[in-house]
Amino acid sequence: MNEKFIVVLITSPRKDSKRISFDILSSHLAACVNILPVHSMYWWKGNLEEDSEDLLIIKTTEKLFEKLKHKVIEIHPYEVPEIMAIPVLAGYEKYLKWLSDSIANLDV
User: Fold this and answer.
1) Residues 87, 59, 103, 97, Cα dihedral to 10°
2) pLDDT tens across 24-67, in order?
3) Residue 56's CB: how many other CB atoms inside 10 A?
4) 50, 67, 93, 108: which has the highest count of C-beta atoms within 10 A?
5) With contact defined as beta carbons under 8 Å apart, do 11 and 55 qualify?
6) 3 state DSSP class of 9
7) Nearest-CA neighbor of 20 among 49, 51, 55, 60?
């Protein structure tokens, strides 16, 4: 396995999380998306804000990141969506094989 795996974090309004996840998966840009409820506090345009959101945890490869990023920018309702990639340094070999096989079977 020579692929470089990444985990991409994206926050989303709760009402849009499933749609965004489905669009990412149906566009063959990831093998898996987890959706977790989070309470976010952040600065936005000089104001301290807080919202109930979802955190999308997306498992994919480094080579798909740019396409994934552009897809999210296209479909996300936020003016500046959070899109952050974290490298996977190690993992359970059978899970990484499943991830690799899942992405290899996608029509990229």
Assistant:
1) 70
2) 999 989 999 999 999 999 999 999 999 999 999 999 999 999 99
3) 24
4) 67
5) yes
6) strand
7) 55
